[in-house]
Amino acid sequence: MAQDRLTKPDRHSGISRRGLERLDLMLLTVEALDLNGGEAMLSMAGQLGFNDLFPNRVELWKRRCYNPLRLACRRGELSEPETDALISLLCALADRLYPMLRQLLSSAEPAQVTAERWGLFQKRLDELIRERLNPRRGGVQKLLDPKEGPALRLQLIHGLAFGAGRGGFDRLKASLMDASA
Amino acid sequence: MKVSHRFEQTSCRLRLDGLPDLSAGQAENVIGILSGWQLALAGHTELEGKREHLLALLDVVLPYARHLLSGVPRRFGADAGPVQIEPVRESGAGRCHRLRLFSSQPDTPPLELSLDDAELSDLVRCLDQLRLDPRVQLGFKLPAERPLPKREILERIPLRQRLFSPLAAATALAVTASISLMVPLPRRPTAPSPSPAAVPTVPLSPAEPNP
Fold this sequence. Notes:
The structure holds 2 protein chains of 2 kinds.
Chain A (H helix, E strand, L loop, with lengths): L1 H5 L10 H17 L3 H11 L9 H8 L15 H17 L1 H8 L5 H22 L5 H7 L4 H15 L4 H9 L5
Helix pairs in contact in A: 2-5, 2-7, 2-9, 3-5, 5-10, 6-9
Chain B lengths: L2 E7 L2 E8 L13 E9 L5 E3 L1 H19 L13 E7 L5 E7 L9 E5 L1 H16 L17 H4 L5 H24 L29
Antiparallel strand pairs in B: 1-2, 2-3, 3-4, 5-6, 6-7
Helix pairs in contact in B: 1-2
């Protein structure tokens, strides 16, 4: 389904800057969950047939830099094939990480173990945020805020869990195209 | 020739039983006519139903997950419908989701299932597998996923936060207007009073002509 869309002619994706911000943050969440996330992204892009769009790590990074919260932020918009490829990549990575996402969301796990998992995830995500995002932006400060951060992290994990797999593509894409409040 | 297909996730197992619709030219392993389905959720009673119940479940759970993804969970399912789902905030814990199933049998109380996020995402993945499986051709017409309008997105912002900006703007305007009203207006320079109307003086005696 996603592959069919990728053959459409080049045009704007209709995803707002806020949507691109969420998309990149979810990819960052994948990297926080998987220590080898960067390599996994590239390898998954190859498996999904996106070698033309993302032939190397730099090309993938350049597409992700449309996130306005990035330190090295790029202006402009991504085309529909580019955003569709990024969303397909995210859905496939989330599908691979689904057991981990499930553990974080499950209330059946012992509370202490769940708290330790969230703590570890938070530590890794915060490190990545400090390394790659602009700390002067309000959105970044909210992510690092001890009060507002947990709800935003849960929202990112929800995004991955409910957008995982082939069935999550349309759902995730529609949510990234939501009107900005 | 009965056909069964199973869709499984960690806490969820969905089984469909049916037959291929040979009149529509369906293959032997395709379910085109549903005879029944069973949904087993770990720790809960096994559910069974017919085609319309499965369609109702898809119609309610998938849009609910869509809204959850956008951060605006809300209740789905009509009051008279067979399936309802709504978010419930449990004290001390995170959010959970209450799935209510109404039996078509009279005098049967509704079955309530409380699902956590992990169980709900398992159910959503099972339903995704079902709707995308080419071996299941039940002709369900599910609405396409659409971006949420601004009206629905605004609901996730607390009312107090939403009203703060316009109220602050209105207050600032009122304060500025009151202060500006207290500033005395500069007096207009008084216009010079008009001189009494000039009355043409009539000479008492005709002027003597100059020689």
